[in-house]
Write a structure and sequence with these properties.
By secondary structure, the protein is an alpha/beta fold. The protein folds into 2 domains: about 120 residues, no CATH class; about 190 residues, no CATH class. It contains 8 helices and 11 strands. It has a 5-stranded mixed β-sheet with strand order 8-7-9-10-11. It has a 4-stranded antiparallel β-sheet with strand order 2-1-4-3. It has a two-stranded antiparallel ribbon with strand order 5-6. Helix 8 links the parallel strand 9 and strand 10. Helix 1 packs antiparallel against helix 2, helix 4 runs parallel beside helix 5 and helix 7 packs parallel to helix 8. The longest helix is centred in the first third of the chain and has 22 residues. It is elongated and about 80 Å long. It starts with a strand and ends in a 6-residue tail after the last strand.
Amino acid sequence: MSVEMRTWVCVERTDTIDRLLKDALSAHARLRKALPGDRTDAARFEALCTQIEQQAYTVLCAGADATPGLECLPHTPASPGFLVPGEAADTVGLQPFEAQQIGSWLASDCVAVQLRFPFEQGDTCEIRAARPPVPPAAPWQATGGARGSKAVLQRFRAQVDQAADGRPGAAINPSGVSNSVLTETLREYAAGVPGRAPVPAQVVYRDGSTGPAFPLRGTALSPAPARSGRKLSFALLSIRHTDMDVEVDGAWLRNTVVSRVRPAGDTDRLVYELSLQQLRALTQEGPLTLLMYQTGLETAVVGFYRAVLTVLQDPAHRPGALVVIPRYYRSADGAPHFSEGTPWRT
């Protein structure tokens, strides 16, 4: 059995420790301004903290002043990794004897660094869960012997149908759903139905993250194919299919911004916010028809069309002022082409 212990170490100021602290604080400040999911400065901050802790462990072994060891229980409040002179000491999570001793170190122009020892001898604290684990989901079988993309379509439609009915625990899971199936199914269920209340459906991705709710049954979508106003063509994402370059006026989203390692729900939210801002700016200049050449990044598709519905649902929106027509990349017999999907318009 083992327990986690912590101790604070008094580290005297040197050129090395000052440089590490300055760089760590700078990385932490930049981290607050980083895009969702951008871990460049987070990784840099963690690496610098590791070096600071190595310096503290070295002086601890050499006999530096330190606080008595304190067992860290699961409910113990979080505490900072280090404290420096000249800044207000963050005493949240510190015991009184720790705060007093650290205060005296900082007053003498030293640095206080926390060290954690996760495998010290002791009785491990066990916490029982307040509720039992979630039972496994019931197996799903396609009907009519459907396989491949047809089975995916059946499965996704069943998910969205349950979410549109407001069933407890039902959610939209776009992960692994092909581009056209995802877009056309969301378009079908986003349309308002007489006598049915709108449903904000939960969106859950394969990694367990969630995006903003997707509005189902709440928009008076029209099947009319008429196009009005200016016509602009966009690739949903840059640098996905170069065959699109001759077809489009530009890219709606930059791949370098969207396709980063982050929770899928955060990417969905980022795409939604960027798309909503761009749609509002474009529609202020008059009626607009967008031809959206799409590829299959699920988070980009869901985030973009959620933004489209937000604009279409705006009370100030005029019918026909925005028409979005999906165009899906196809490759039949080695000849790439684009097929047109159902328009999103009121």
